[in-house]
């Protein structure tokens, strides 16, 4: 009997993981599907799609002809991801829980579970690639530039990458949907999920209201004038334009430049004084950062890369920004950009690239400028 390598695939109910499972089976692997339940506080809520997603995942497994297991990681998620999410918001920062979920749940708790099932590899539907080179493993961008998800995977380490397959990383999304339709997958035209898994499509502020107390305070413009009241600094993020409640107020300074009708944007959150600072105009100098500092660094290779010319993203879906990586070590680094970056946000991740290779990144602490 021919030996078949066992691969456990994370089936989310979406088309990307479904096609990943199909491709692996077609390549001769023994494929087992796992559906991860990471959130259960809203099982009966209109915003929680977990139950629907499992039905879709089970239907996919049936069509492909593989087993599927439902595994509950909600306790691990709450401890490792959601608790950190709340801590960061309460500190006035804007975290990215999807990055932490990948590092702590999908490629740790899920990986451990798969190994207990006798798997030699795991696979997910992420648009990224792994390359073995010089005895190590590199994380590469997905070939579809519109879908590349390496930004969310930058905290993966050598052990995790050595056991991971990304079957759709070589494909454009259009081809993934074509394959799904061709083989008759029931979710071939299912809309891509957006937003944070435990929030779903509900209004973000409504969700935070359940966990974080409101502490109203002043909204001030660059001249120090109080022009409104915020509902609590945790409910705002840098660069935010909607929901400020100050649309009819003009910045006196902006009037001189003929820009009196420009929209307002959040530019700074002063935690000590509980003050929200806003500016008028998308290109206001207070929104532009020539550099940033980051901590809690995580490098794919297991050690910091050499300083020098790189590219970086300070948010997902941003074009790579040319920059210089300065003083990188196992905890911190600085990025100095060729052109100032817009709304660099503490708590978000700065992810560093050398061409198509994702080197790793860290959590933004400051934009390394003095603006006030």
Describe the structure in your own words.
- With 372 residues, this protein is an alpha/beta fold.
- The protein has three domains: 6-182, HUPs (Rossmann fold), CATH 3.40.50; 213-282, Roll (SH3 type barrels); 287-366, Elongation Factor Tu (Ef-tu), domain 3 (Beta Barrel), CATH 2.40.30.10.
- It is built from eight helices and 17 strands.
- The chain has helices spanning 15-26, 50-64, 74-90, 97-116, 158-162, 173-182, 204-209, 252-256, and strands at residues 6-10, 30-37, 67-72, 121-123, 128-133, 136-141, 164-165, 217-220, 226-230, 264-270, 275-280, 288-299, 308-313, 321-326, 333-342, 349-354, 357-366.
- The strands form three sheets. A six-stranded antiparallel β-barrel has the order 12-15-14-13-16-17. A five-stranded parallel β-sheet has the order 3-2-1-4-7, with helices on both faces.
- The longest helix has 20 residues, at 97-116.
